[in-house]
Amino acid sequence: MLVWIVLPLIILLVILLIMLFIPIKIHIRYAHHQEDDLLTLSVSFLGLKVYKLEVPVIHVNTLTQTVTAEEKEESLFKDKKKNKKWGIESLKNYVKTAKRFAAHFPKLKQRVYRFLAKVTCKHVTWKTEFGTGDAAITAQLAGLIWTIKSFCIGWIQAKVNWKGEKRLEVTPHFQVKGYRMFVSCIVTFTLWHAITTLLLLVISYKKIEKRFKPASSGERYFHS
Q1: Where do transmembrane segments lie in this chain (predicted)?
Q2: Beta strand 66-75 with 79-86: parallel, antiparallel or unpaired?
Q3: Residue ranges of the domains in the chain?
């Protein structure tokens, strides 16, 4: 009788372990044209699209000093639309959080780089079209954009496994003003590497946080 209870549990455990090592595919696309933006992120597992996020509209209100994004989420269980609004205070909090992580990054970056080494990046497309109305300035910016793109792609290639095609384009328009950009790439990694890296980062972060002590001024400082 015990066998009929334990055996299904063992089979279920084996299936879960196998799923941990099956790659997750994330397709990221971003398009910008004049004042329109569209960010799309879709997650697939075992060939099945399990999650999709679209951020099609971003509103900037200079009067209230707020930024609002309209998001559309699709998953296996439900679809929903929602608006997210950020004000000056929330943006300041994000900056403070970013500074805190930046302070910890030198001690955490090795774990991040180990995870990136397990990530596969492929089918990268990065197109840019622009014009300033001044031919000389446009030509100079074209060279600068090529330099920036080459640096970014070179850095990424050094950190991740690179497969598939790479398509970089810079198209200057010398007689018109405008800006258009399109970025698309596919990244894959296993759930196992994502979970273990996240746990190790949390543990390391907590250990580093213990080395902070609140000062009387409300700031925090390191102590040995």
Answers
A1: 6-24, 178-203
A2: antiparallel
A3: 21-57+104-210
